[in-house]
Hints:
Strand order of the largest sheet: 14-13-12-11-7-10-9-8-15
Strand content: 25-35%
Order of helices and strands: HEHEHEHEHEHEHEHHHEEEEEEEHHE
Number of strands: 15
Largest sheet: 9 strands, mixed
Amino acid sequence: MYNSEAYLTTAKVRVGLVGTGYAAKLRAEALLQDERSHLVAIAGHKLENTQAFAQEYQAEAVSSWEQLVGRDDIDLVVISTINRDHGAIARAALTSGKHAIVEYPLALDVVEAQEIIALAKAQNKLLHVEHIELLGGLHQALKQHIEKVGEIFYVRYSTISPIHPAPRKWTYNHELFGFPFIGALSRLHRLTDLFGAVFTVNCHQRFWQVEQDYYQACFCMTQLCFTSGLLAQVVYGKGETLWQPERKFEVHGHEGGLVFDGDRGFFIHNGESTPIEIGTRRGLFAKDTTMVLDRIFDGKPLYVTPEASLYTLKVAEAAQRAAETGLTIFMKDI
């Protein structure tokens, strides 16, 4: 539990937010709606944009995340900025005696992530790595219906997003976003949450790039062999050289199959297809924020642990090694 500090029994948790993008906006809205939190300060990339963002959410704009984490009037740091900086900010926040929420991934490097988790334990501070994909309607529907298919032997998960022209932003930058399956860690985390430990990993990647700092498209496919014998393929692509959008999750078992295609879901058995209701994807950042505050104030359990996210990060690093070397990577070597 993290409510031993006296102020938490009588006052609001004071929050500093790093980031001014989409996720940061949803975090700010959630914090304003919960009477247990007070959004004190916001740090962003450009001070002018940060000032406008902070004014909208009744907070103070600061010039850097380093300044924000060093403040004495902040108890919790929420990290909603570029992937490259997640680890450094989380480490600094915890070192300064603050709780930390970080959008996945915790870091772009497994060793750094391990060190940050150890630091949180040593400081007795909450470290929460957000994985709202586990709270969404698709994942909950998967969990509810997955036993119907019997023994599972094959899973395919594909998210392809054609964009013409591709945006010149950090999500199309190798250094800022990271290896695709690390930057988009949720694609693998769905699988490790559902199916457990991975035995071997293969991966292939391709980028289309005409300038040094930003690429215009990427296509990445990994094959995971789980210790259970289950084979899973995960496809992730975005940008200009892709033409057909796809958001599809297939589960194939001895007794039937589950197919989730966009916002539609079906259970398939003996040639018949039965619709499955999929809940909304709305409000997940607010739900995640509420659960974090419940943890801080009341000691209630969270829906995911940093260690679970770390394991998926190891799987993603194995995929990166496989893509770079062309070899099968054994998880025992990560």
